[in-house]
Amino acid sequence: MRMSRGADKTTRVFFYGLFMDESHLASKGIRPHASRSGYVEGFCLRIGERATLIPEPNSRAYGLLMEMAEADVAVLYSDQTLRDYIAEPVLVHLANDTPLAAVCYNLPAAKLTGRNPQYATALLALATKLGMPDHYLAHIRLAAEAA
Fold first, then answer.
1. Model pTM score
2. What are 90-104's pLDDT values in tens digits?
3. Which of the listed CATH numbers 3.90.1860.10, 3.10.490.10, 3.40.190.10, 2.30.110.10 matches domain 10-145?
4. What are phi and psi of 22, to 5 degrees?
5. Ramachandran region of residue 86, left (φ > 0), alpha (ψ -120 to 50) or beta?
């Protein structure tokens, strides 16, 4: 397990899937800090085998903005199942509408395949725990209920 070192350069990362769960990250030896709720405009959450954000005008995707060591981010996305995710710059709006630049890792829409109701169910539980808006929870619930 990798442990974060204080000397590592940090970066802001916007998470919208199960990486929003800090205990899950801690189980991988990753300790984010300065976690804050926020949203990105112009993106919509889609859930296939995993989650991704795809560009969609007039949409909003919710998640957590976290600061963490760049080396830890590299470890997270070196996993075989996540290697197709691409870092994209985003502007995260915090609860007080303060915008902060961050990076968000997204799966290209063409690579979003399958269904994973178990993932969606776990994400719904996490998003509920984090207090995300009801309309957003309803969106996740649809993916969780997909047969």
1. 0.90
2. 999 998 888 999 999
3. 3.10.490.10
4. -65, -30
5. beta
